[in-house]
Amino acid sequence: MRRWLAPTLALFATVPAQAAPAPITGNWKTDDGRAIVTIAPCQGGLCATISRFLVSEPQGGIRDAKNPDPKLRNRRVLGSQVLWGLKPGARAWTGTGYSARDGRTFNASVTTEGGKLELKGCVLMFCKTVEWTRV
Asked: Is residue 9 part of a domain?
């Protein structure tokens, strides 16, 4: 029994630990340049909230008109969460996202390198990736 114990322990000692993904908290300009999104700790991980628009809003503000829940269609988009429940994985932060532009919820995967954040959103097998810039 002792003959296999030492080699087995040595094998586990040489397996590299999985590195956590790079930190993503802070302010990010969206890919279309229309908004600043703030990523910060919230219940259950990290959340991204629209903190400022870089374009003029219409009178009364931009509304969540395409939300699938009719009760939420009149809420303002400014201040709403677009990502939530982001938790670190081996290479990326994963959680849930929402696009007020089309009223869809999606599975989100977020990575960052330097001043760029890559957000990949998938609904079923259809995915789209956008790049945000740190501000």
From this structure: no
Q: How many domains does the chain have?
A: 1
> Alpha helices, DSSP H only, in the chain?
2-14
- Region label for 110, one of left (φ > 0), alpha (ψ between -120 and 50) or beta (otherwise): beta
Long-range contacts of 25-34 (CB under 8 A, 24+ apart): 26/134, 27/51, 27/134, 27/135, 28/117, 28/132, 28/133, 28/134, 28/135, 29/54, 29/132, 29/133, 29/134, 29/135, 30/130, 30/132, 31/130, 31/131, 31/132
Sign of CA dihedral 50, 51, 54, 56: positive
What pTM did the predictor assign?
0.83
Whether 4 is covered by a domain: the verdict is: no
State the Cα–Cα distance between residues 116 and 125, nearest whole angstrom. Answer: 25
Note the Cα 43 to chain centre separation in Å: 14
Amino acid in the structure at residue 93? W
Residue 103: which domain range? 21-134
pLDDT in tens, 82-116: 999 999 999 999 999 999 999 999 999 999 998 99
Joined together, the tokens standing for residue 89 give: 């994985």
